[in-house]
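We emphasize that the prediction below concerns an isolated chain of 346 residues; any contacts that depend on oligomerization or on bound cofactors are therefore not represented. The input was used exactly as deposited, without trimming of termini.
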Amino acid sequence: MAGWQALYWDNQLVSQHDANADPSATPLHQFTLQAGEQEIQCELQLELNWQPFQLRYRLKVNDGVAEQEIGQGEIGEKEIEQQVVENRPKQPNKISLIGLGSLGLKLFKSAKVIKVLFAAGSLAAYTWLFSIEFAIALILCLVFHEYGHIRAMQRFGLKTKGIYLIPFVGGLALSDDRINTRWQDVYISIMGPFFGFLLSCACLVIYWITDVELFAGLAAFNALLNLFNLLPVLPLDGGHVLKSIAFSVNSVLGLISCVLGAVAGVAISYYFNLTLLGFLLAVGSIEIIFEWKRRHQSDLLPLQRYGQIVSALWYFATVGGLCAIIWVLGNSGSEALALPLRILGS
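Result of the prediction step, given as a token string:
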């Protein structure tokens, strides 16, 4: 089906075409612009393809003297990622600790000392809960996780404001720029846990080489930290990833695939006695399915089918890798290393 199209000039609707059952239809927008006392007849031809996204255009004008073509070209997903959208429609925000923390941070945009104060507060809080050694290790894990988000933002040319550590909450990687596509949301969200997975793998290798149990503990608890961050619950990273996938699925078959994937994840969790993980996956998956109904209210460019598959495989591979690290160390015979596994099995 050729989708509905609306054309605006200076925030005024100048042409509109309803959806057409013929997918090969190429709507022709004809409208008049007023330049002082002169009327300019405009003709804009659009060819729009959603999967993969490609927009071709050709613009002709007639000023009453002669008709001329003044522009033609095409726009793909890369161009959409780089564009700056003005007057973006506001989406209702859900109240959350992370959201409130982000709002508070916006009040201190220019105060770099706030980063130091929050970091010191986090160090003091985690030292009070655990120990100074574990607090330092935990903060390093949080910083590495957030650095993954920062690197992903920079890949898309987004301006970053740095990393903020929030006591008892975790960390935040902030940017003033807004994303335009679902792939940007997936990539930025999953790179934090993926960096965390790489850190746990590195610690695990060091533990096997040196036999120093501190690195094993760091690998296990860092894996647990990033695994919870991948739960499909907003505003966690996993919620953003699966929401972007669900919002990009238009067919009933695609929705059924998402549901079957969620059921498989819950079944595998219970099979390996990861009861808490399975329960939270089930709750989060139900939330994402309900969110699917609101997918047409977003102004973000949806994922292509290839992007949906890559995003889902990347997500489940990262979750599986983190679970594998926790499982291996949890069955190593050490009481301390078995704690993350017991938490997931509670």
